[in-house]
Predict the structure.
Amino acid sequence: MSDSFVLLNKCEVERLLSYDELIPRLESVMGKFSKRDSSEIIQPVRSVVPIQPYNGFLGVMPSYMAADGILCTKMVTFYQRAEGSSLPSTQATVLLFHPERGHITAIMDGEAITAKRTAAMSAISAKMLMPALSEVLCILGSGQQARSHYDVFTKVFKFKEVRIWSRRREMAQQFVNDLQGPVRVCSSVKEAVMGADVIVTATGASQPLLFGEWVKPGAHIAAVGACRPDWRELDDVLMRAAVVYVDSREGATAESGDIILSGAHIFAELGEVINGSFPAQREKTTVFKSLGMGIQDAVSAKLVLEKLKSEH
């Protein structure tokens, strides 16, 4: 391995990675992916290794984007922690390689990349699918993903009301205390989601906690939790009634318990909407089931490096 690689910590990645630049790059790469030109993008489904004694998993997410000269992989561990555990539920590292020579060119914190690119993808889905008049945003969860979603959604859109719910009310209150804008803490999922135009589910749930009977017709749901085939956040009623969009058909049919266990039909990939090959049915209730992809990490990491080089 070459000794001339860049090493970036979480704070540095967060500083260098801006939503203004990240969102258009993600839109571009998702459109390219959905064209299924294997000479342009190689993106296998995530490989997952169970860590059974500790209720965890190791995920490996490689990708190669030939035209952009990006060879990348992310390694992520994710766990189902006991309530009140002080241990993190996810940790991640992103590696960039020299495509021709094969050596590592950069090692960077993957948690900041994962949080920002996931939230940016949800914002892209909302831009295309949420009701034309959207005034109420609801976020279920109070962890890093909830915070990144709050950041991008309040930056890109103008909501009159933002609601938050978390299993632990003290965590939801801490979430609110750390923010600049007004947010209402709700005591139940039902209270939080009733009448909401946009709902983000960013929880560690393995059983449904969002039920279709509570969801306003025409609402948009960005579901970013439940990344295993036997985990769920959304119930059958919601999944079967909604128009379902995904980042990757292959990934969703292999990994998403929300889709697999409900038997829901996948209408389109977000990239297919970006390409104009499938419509954005914003007049209907829509779900964007997000599982995350290696190409999203790769584009984000490349942007971080570009910003770093421009500073020197």
Observations:
- Residues 219 and 282 are 8 Å apart (CA to CA).
